[in-house]
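Predict fold of Aminopeptidase N; 813 aa.
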Amino acid sequence: MMIKKAMFFLLMTISLMSFSQASDLYKAEKEKIHDLVHTKLKVDFSFSEKTMNGEAWVTAKPHFYAANKITLDAKAMLIHQISLNNKKLKYVYDNSKLIIDLPILYKRNEEFTIYIKYTAQPEKVHQKGSAAITEAKGLYFINSDGLDKNKPTQIWTQGETEASSCWFPTIDAPNQKTTQEIYITVPKKFKTLSNGKLINQTEKGSNRTDYWRMDQKHAPYLFFMGIGEYEIIKDNYKNIPINYYVEKEYAPYAKDIFGLTPEMMEFFSTLLGVEYPWNKYSQIVGRDYVSGAMENTTAVIHGEKAYQTPGQLIDENVQENTIAHELFHHWFGDLVTTESWSNLTLNESFANYSEYLWREYKYGKMNADMHLFDDVSAYKNGQNFDKHLVRFNYTDKEDMFDLVSYNKGGAILHMLRHYLGDTAFFEGLKTYLTEFKYKTAEVHQLRLIFERITGKDLNWFFNQWYYGAGHPKIDISYDYNTIQKKVTVNILQTQSNAFKFPLTLDIFENGKRTRHTVFVNGRDASFTFPYTKQPALIQINADGVLLCEVNENKVLSEYVFQLKNATNYIHRREALLEVIKKQDDKIVFNAVVNAMDDPSYKIRILALQNVDLINKFSKKNVIQKIMLIANNDKKTLVQAAAIETLGKLTDPELQSIFEKALQSKSYSVLGKALVAMYYVNKQLAIAKSKTLPDEVRKILATPLTRIFIEEKDQNELPFIAKSVLSGMFLSNDDASKNIYQKAFTLISESNNTEAIQNLVDDMVVKGNQFKSFNFDKVVINLMRRMVQDQKTKNLTNKVRNIAIIKEAMAKLL
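Predicted 3D structure, encoded as tokens:
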């Protein structure tokens, strides 16, 4: 599962539910009374009722002890018939658990097959989602009545954590494994996707039945159905078919979006020493999907964010990390599955780390380190310090899907890899995957494999990183002995529980860098190093591997030196953020300018965004440099940052630069150029904004909103309204948030009924979608403000507008 990160952070901020305290109750692996063996399903759908007619043949056997009852999970279903060998069985059903009386006492390994005829009613399911998975009703009908002409009719499923039992009876636990087959009957116009292989298709009247079969065992939460009017774009890796299910509009771009999948599959297979273990790999994009993506075995579903056009892809394929993440799950999560949600790290931490591994291979170590920094920063900025990676006392299993299981877990694997070395680390992963394939595992079993291979005791590592909480917070001080020419580095941990860890230090002396690795084995540690000339800089955690916070007092000259000479991205970034505060100093200003040439494009962007061009040294030369960057930087996102910086000067002499940028294939460059042009040639910028195709206007909503709000363009308020809510809460910078706050106020106080309707429609959708995180209450408060704004203005449409707003509020109350 890949979380929708932007919404994840929003909901973590808004919702108290996201910060639920740990429970005192131990959450054990689910007891295995019966083992699933095989699941056969036949399904068809009532689109108008949003229900599914189902028949299930569940084959199971007692795990160890003899049993004459079996309990299945079946949520909010109508149960029509239950039988075994054509004989009806007695059962008790409480709308969640289905307890079935068996005709005899079945002994260990004695298989039996129960037939269940039922109706799934997903709209009547009431169970909590999570910050990663915002709903949990298992089966989703999208625009099932076809009334929304801008949205296709689709059906898709979402099983994690325990929502597969909303659409078929099963033992809904990650420690169960079953083979499967499914017959899906749909109108002929629809394509279907499920796990395993499409065996055959049979037409009858206006319908078609697709028969999918999965001969390898996997967990029930990984079962999947996807249905819709899709184009199927074919690809392959060796003899394994790879398919991309996309809407017709995006068919030309499917391989631009997903086309690295075969290379990823080859890379991961080679790296792990375990070939991709399944018989196909398909990826489908679902409308209104409740998360970022999901690793359903051989049938991954992505949210709409995956859809991108060339103008976006030239900047960055924002789905690439997710594509790698879900593919890696097919080893870690699908082939070997966590035995309990407490051990979710065995699924999600590995998938998270695969993003680093892929970027390291494809784009180099620095690119991967940039990604790791973003992940670790997100973990640190959340309220996560007191959470264990392996948690047996969570309040709700959904709480496990957080930045500890994902981001911190990935960073811990990075540390373990560096401690053991690549050869041992990847041999350990190969052994783990081989010994536990088609089975479940817990973290201790992973530890024991690494210990067996390396001969090392790793209890200390796993106890503090997997079964403990937090990370080192380190105060650094230096003692220089100028007579003996030695420096002592003092390391003091200030958090409550002291960690043990290897630590790298780079000492820069006489123009050379010397790397040392020490092992910190207590709260207070000191290490002494000789020097011939006092070091210009000592860089702590020089390789950036240790997950920690470092506090030390550096002078400005050290940060300038660090910006130029540090080898790791995180330290150059840290130095840049310090030096930009002191640009009145000519040396510092030049250091910021030089950072525009940094090998990291993110540092180049930071330097461009923060350079102070007001009455500065060599201003003309610097502007010339930024103009060259705007035209020539190999990264379009950097070009866009350069355009934005030049735009702040509001200099008509720069118009030719902006005109050229308006012709860019990059939407990020185009968006920045529109705003920059607006302040030197309003007429040209507005004309360009008005003539953009609708699909481009939607992508460039933020810069266009800025222009239209500045212009107080009432005609564009309906367009702006569709993006206001997302912009207010999900924008990456304060400036954009402020623009959307202004837009909200302008619409709220306007006479424009269409704009008000568009805004409240979006509020209802998002309020309902994230109701479990109290976002509906946020939206309702905004609507109340809109009513008050309407009442205080002398508007001809006031009565109608207030009625529209109140009608929308009623849908959320």
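Residues 15-20 have pLDDT under 50 and may be disordered.
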